[in-house]
Amino acid sequence: MNHTPSQALVASRLYDQARLGPGGTWACDLATENLTWTDGVYDLFGLTRGSTLKRSMSLDVYQSQSRSEMDRRRADAIRTGKGFSLDCQLRTGGSSRWMRLQVGVTYDQGRPVRIFGSKQDITAEKKMWDGLVTLVGSDPLTGLANRRAFEEAARELSRHADGSHGFALVVLTVDEFDAIRSLYDHAGALECLRCIGERLARLFPDAVLVSRIGGCEFALLLRVPGGHTALATMLKGAHRLLARPVPRDRQPIAIGISVGAAFLKSAHQHEPKKLFAEADSALYVAKAAGANRVRVFDGMVAKPIAQSQLQQAAGLRAS
């Protein structure tokens, strides 16, 4: 899709703001645990510039999962001499911020004596992708349609709803996405989103539209002439493939995917938002039932499909 010059300019500014986030350099003497920070790091951690530093003071600012992962990576770096980069979540002044930690190791006569690196505020970068998604018709991360394009398509489809087309709206989300981002850093989280986008495009080649509608949420418009059971069967089969671990260099990333769906009905012609509300309610039921599962809206509630019905539907398709 061609972007207008104004969109490209705004996207460029968003990127520059994210890339130039505040921060600074730091060092830690391993024998004494004494820290040395530049002013930007003090600011990032919400501490008075030039104040006496203790490692425990900085550790208290880390969100628990980020702290655990940082401690593990730090120990590995000291043991192996290999540096690392990690995106960590901080909590300062009652608000949440994101920091990119860069770590290197200095040796003296074969022994690690110092670790050092940089700490950069990347909170703006975390918001950058969502900002870009609102600017263009396609999501820059996955290449799928963005939320605006998806909502326009859904509204247009709703205008022609007469109850006989067999269209369905499917919404899905990555379970515990913040935990994935904390454990595997921002790059790992983005890899999950890219992989899910690729899987959706591959699993639903005949979809009217496949979209990333923001953050860790995706949506599909599907043509499903077979009714409720056929849709549930299709989604459960796709779910097994969607929720497979995401491949990564050292360790695959385990993921869960919660899915909610609703059929387009003639009533949605005058209330297109009701279709989204019904699909969202099915998604909520899927999460409330333990997450990583599929629910289809059926009247007032979203009900699971009995296993016997799924087997019967699969048998009918095979015969």
Question: How does CATH name the architecture of the largest domain?
Answer: 2-Layer Sandwich
Number of strands: 11
Structural class, from helix and strand content?
A: alpha+beta
For the terminal residues, how far apart are their CA atoms? 43 Å
**How do the SSEs run, as a string of H and E?**
HEEHHHEEEHHEHEEHEHEEH
* Main sheet properties: 6 strands, mixed
Q: Could you give me the name of the CATH homologous superfamily of the largest domain? A: Reverse transcriptase/Diguanylate cyclase domain
Under the CATH scheme, which class of the largest domain?
Answer: Alpha Beta
User: What integer value in Å does the Rg equal?
Assistant: 24 Å
* Helix content estimate: 40-55%
Task: Look at the structure and give the mean pLDDT.
Answer: 80
Approximately how much beta-strand content do the residues carry?
Answer: 25-35%
Runs with pLDDT <50, length 5+? 1-19, 305-319
Number of domains: 2
Structure annotation, total helices: 10
- The CATH topology of the largest domain is given as Alpha-Beta Plaits
Strand order of the largest sheet: 7-8-6-9-10-11
